[in-house]
Structures are given as C-alpha cells and as structure tokens.
Amino acid sequence: MIPLKTFGIWGNTEKDSFWETLPKIVSWADENGLVAHLTTRILKNENCTDHTRPAITSKDDIGSLDFMLALGGDGTFLSLARAMGHHQTPILGIHLGDLGFLAKVTKNDLFPRLTQVAAGDFILEKRMLAKATIRKNGDTIHHVALNDFVLGNGESHRMLTARVKVNNHLVGNYRADGLIIATPTGSTAYSLSAGGPIVTPTVDSLIITPASAHSLTSRPLVVPADSRIVLEFPDTDDSLLFIADGQNHESLDPSCKVEITKAEFNINLVDFEDRDYFQTLRAKMGWGTRGEH
Questions:
Q1: Residues 134 and 256 occupy one common structural domain
Q2: Helix, strand, or coil here: 237?
Q3: Which of 80, 148, 221, 288 could form an S-S bond across to 10 if both were Cys, CB 3.0 to 4.6 Å?
Q4: Which residues are tagged catalytic?
Q5: What is the mean pLDDT of each run of 10 residues along the chain (293 residues)?
C-alpha cells in the first residue's frame, strides 16, 4: 500500500484536551512528512494559534484526503460521519477520554496508531448509515445517521403513538415514550438502553426499538437493511420531535410521514488487526466478565 500523505482533523473544539492534543498531532505530521488539514471551525477558533495549515471547507475537500481524524469522542465521530456525504475517506476516531465504540484510539496509544495508519498498516471496516426521508407540509427533508433516529412527542412529553410498516406490511401500532430506529453501529447506544439487542456491525440490518413501551407485547424488531420502514402518526395530536444521532433535531406534526431505509453509501472506519469488536464490548460494558477478577 502506498504510504499516506494527507489527512484532515475534525475535532470537538469545546474540549480543552482537544487544544492540548492538536499541536502534538500537527508536530507529528510535520516530522513524518504528512500534511495536516484543519476544518474552518478549528482555524477560526480563538484558541487556534497556527493559521498556516490548509483548510477543509467542503465535503469534496474531505474526499481528497487520505484519511480523517475525529478528535473528541463518539459524538465527534458521529458528526463527521454525517458530514462525509458519499466520500469514502477512512476515519480514525481518537477518544480524548476513555475508549469509545467508534473512537477506538485513546491518547495513550495515539502516536503508535497514527504511525501505523501513515504506513498503511490498518484495516477498513465498512459501516452502514440509515437515511430518513420526511414528508413535511409538502416538502421533503433528508437526514442520515450512523447510530439512530429517535422519534418522540415534543414538549408535551406524552406517550408517542406510531404506526409502523415494513415494506408496506403493517408491523403494528407502537405506544411508547419514543421509538428508535438504529443501525447495527447504533445498537450499542440508545437502543441498547431501551432494551434492544446488540447487533454486530457486519449484520446488515435495521433495529426498531420502542423506548419504555406501554405494552408488554411491544418488542424490539430486527429487519433486513434493505427494508423500507414507514412511520405514521394518525392517532397523535401533539407535535413530534425527530432526532438524528442525538444531534440533529427536526420538529414534525402528526401529518408527517417518515420513511427510513439504508443509505446509498457507507463510511470506512480505520481499525487494526490486533483489535476486534468484542474487545471493545468487553472494555466498555464488562461484556462476558461476570464472576471474573
């Protein structure tokens, strides 16, 4: 593999640890013959003291780079994944705190891992995204998510009633505090805390999970990723809140219709031969360690 020469940095500029780590990464790049590109948000921040670096101003700029660093936590990674569009530039997540499900590298092993990536010593893990098409007042609105879409009643905080169809077949009327449509990547996020299953990333699927269901017969459902999930709200009077990846919010009214499918593109996660998904489960959740010391 040809050694990589350019990379971009997408970061959580609200964290002091970001500004502590950024100069070290830029110095590492200079010493190793790589060119670090910074987002305009970083370059315009008052804490940025080096304005000589090339700027990332568009999705196409991201697409021209050899890889991207998401420097922050899993939330930072999610925002970058949605900003990628159809570009397949590999993403390496650097967690400035503990290990994350998406940001798999910590500050402790940052530079050995960066050196591996620069030498091409890594593997790519494809992750699917979900796409939501919302029909709202004659308009069509699109959102993508790496983790999940969540629907709930807005300011009323009352129970959500949603009619769910899969490929034009009625699944049922869900009565719950909310409804989560998750990807396998998002199966370890909000869906899991609501009682949904853990689905490994290689299982191409979508997960429908009610949050605090008001009926014991409402259970999580896993459907093939090529399914077309349609949500309607005929028995709802209140405004609705639609959230993509816990970050992008959209207000809906009961006449809206939400269609969720697999996105037309994936993202590429940088991973390493000496790591695996179940290691991360064990580290983050104590998976399979009951009774062990």
A1: yes
A2: coil
A3: 80
A4: 74
A5: 87 95 96 96 94 93 96 93 92 86 88 94 95 94 97 77 95 92 96 95 96 81 98 86 94 93 96 87 72 50
